[in-house]
Amino acid sequence: LIFPTRSGVMKRLLIVMDKILCSCATHIYPEGEGVKKDLINFNITKKSLKILANGNVNGIDTNYFNPTNFSEGQSNDLRQQLNIYINDLVFIFVGRLVGDKGINELVAAFKKLQANNHERNSKLLLVGPLETDLDPLKRETLEEIENSSTIISVGYQPDIRPYLNIANVLVFPSYREGFPNVVMQAGAMGLPSIVTNINGCNEIIKEGENGWIIPVKSTDAIFNNMQNCLINQQQVLEMVSISREMITSRYEQKILRRTFSRT
Length: 263
Description:
Blueprint: H1 8-24, H2 33-41, H3 72-81, E1 89-94, H4 103-116, E2 122-127, H5 139-147, E3 151-153, H6 161-165, E4 169-172, H7 181-188, E5 193-196, H8 201-204, E6 211-214, H9 219-231, H10 233-251, H11 253-261
Parallel strand pairs: 1-2, 1-4, 2-3, 4-5, 5-6
């Protein structure tokens, strides 16, 4: 749903469009509890709303997204290519580099992190295409990405697993999502996540268990949680196995497909 993040005439128009779509549908399956609540709270439809599985109908192939698929040698080679050191705490973002994904706030928070933590090593790894047409980043954000020696932008990658494998924490400060695959993929690779309190993200992540949930559009919240990861790296390490188990138990693709085949 797009309308929850809009206002004014555009929001009203999008609500009307969603009402028309639902009126034409025979069955409606919301993508998670957040979408279901929005459909109800904004009176989009009176039809029965059923959530399939735990909100994501495709699930994750946890054999494919598995850190054991990569050797230490492969990981070290990639780190060397990217000038990432073994003692660096690597924050990673995967997705389109646009304003709606919270990249302006993320880069500003990481810049502040570097200024306040000279004795601790960290890197920000950006994996995804830069889109300049529809939702361009601020000029100061682009300049910081280009000029900072601790921000590494690798563009679009057909296989994100090697990059997740050398990272420690996913930071995903998006303004809106349905049910983001990358948060599940990162969890399956053993990464805890810092996510915004939006649909999907706040269902995948359980506060303090496999990550942290922060307000939308808050540079300070991103900074505070990233700094917490730097200071409490043992907590990050303890979340690795928990993060993967919480994904495999709820979103394993094979289990979901067997469930749907019986219904």
